[in-house]
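Run: sequence + zinc ion -> complex structure.
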Amino acid sequence: MGTTGFASTTCRTSCFSPRMTSESQAVGKESRPSKIVLPWLGRPRGTANSICRRIGLLSSGGFDKSWNLTVRRLTLHATSYTRALACSSTPEETQTIRLNRALAFLKTRQHDAALSDVESATAAADKPAEKALFRKAEALYGLQQYRECCEVLKKLRLAYPDNMAAKSQLTRAISRLTEHANGKYRFKQLQDEAACARPPHLDHATYIGPVRIQASGSRGRGLFTTKAVKAGDLLFCEKAFTHAFFEKEGGFTMLVDPENGGTMGSHSELIDVTIQKLHRNPSLMPIITDLHHGSYQPVDATYVDGEPVVDTYVALLLPTTISHPNVLTRPRVYPSFLIRRIVALNCFGCPQVSTVTWHQEKRRQGQPPPTKPSTPAEDNGFHSCGIWPTASYINHSCTSNARRAFIGDMLIARATRDLPANTEVTWWYQPPHDDSAQRNKTLLRQWGFVCDCPLCEDEKSTSAAVVGKREALATGLRKQVAALQEGRGRKETGVAVAKIEAALDALAATYTRPASEVPRLAVWVAMQRLLMAVVEMEQVPMARKVRLLLAMLESLGHVIEGGVGGTVKVLQWGLMMDGVVECWAFLRDAYRLTAPELVVPAEGYARAAYKMVFGEDETFVGIYGE
Ligand SMILES: [Zn+2]
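>> structure
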């Protein structure tokens, strides 16, 4: 039997054991409840709230000091109801017991089992019991089957018009159904909710827009557009299947795997909550097991020594459900090793709210806009993680055409370019920087592939001599810009800037293909440094700054018509780095002095870029003003 122990009050160690136990052993445990080992009874983590939420007892509200008693009580309740069912003598009695057991299952988020218990009660009777309908609706809501949930609640409202709880529940379910169907969200409200909720698990529905999963050649499966979309269009907005929230004060979880060492922190917690959720709701298993799992061969044995197999780790977690008939009829292999692999290959690191994290980081750095290229993987805000099944199908490209942003456990995916129908949607697993060798080393190590995007291919075909020249020019530019900053205020600033601009031209000349095909990251980085140096220098005319900003955007492959005066129009969006937002915001402000007629279009582009990077534009004015 696998062991689960707690090294201290703030460190939890769960141990995957390769040894399996049989179902009969698990059920045998159920017959001796006093000896059941419940891992959560050991106060595994630093904060009690997170423990309760992690095991699914509390969805909101404060910590119940008698939390362990509550778990025991619910577990024993369900067990007792199961035993009582075997002894019940009348159909009415059976019905009542099932309804009560359904409540115990709902409270521990075993929606499959709860639904199974109430289904017979709601199907058979002419006028189903009020409680039966209500609990069925709750189970359906928990399984995110909002349409069916609304139907049950409407039936409940018709039969029991005085039930006010059903009325508010119906309003809530209709809101979810609307989100699911239309993709209309009030993102500012979502942000406010994410700022307050701990963990930031939001009560909102998934919307899947104009995308579908289909084969993508040697890349396996990918996500493709079903119709033409515009840059900024919402592709989907997905609620996490599971999400592990990082709390600074919350201690850490450690998961020991005898075969592969172990994982720590929110990643190991994510494995834990994913296994728990699947075990509680086996109907959801295909959503996760269909995801990419590399070369891992899933366990295909259902029986060992003639007995059904239940993974030890899972059997330990929820012994009571093993005895439930609905669960027993499901496959009895709970491949936690497979789940661990799937989580490793498909999880995304995420901040609590993308916008907030970005601006906190900016303040921390104390830099004027635009800041350094985004590096979310290194960003301190990206310690939480989750599984978003639809998002998991998107393949990597450094020259991506979509971006993801996060609000709590919601992932917002938007196109960053105009895309024709049937285009594969791509985004970067890690943001592109100007070192393709380093970039591909990480990709290979973490996800097992080498990128073949235009950027990587171009860098591969560039001679070592050109790469060397590019690096030398970039180093020289770094020094020149540093010298410019140190000599701020001197008369020769204009000359220094002109020299830097000449060096930038030389750097750009090391690229053979147009920037609209192959973004010039080295140029972008060097120009960002220059802008940071001159942004507040009065000796540098505003018109010169405007030209620099336009050149920065062009280095990333943005094709812009006009931009100096009279007109400004984006003909084609290029690489959507975070800094693009600030380029446009700065252009808007610069145009107030140089070309007032361009302020409005520039603001429009700033908003559009903001929406692509952060998923929404409702908070744009709060950050950049009007
Ligand atoms: Zn690439």
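>> summary
Residues 541-626 form one domain. The radius of gyration is 28 Å.
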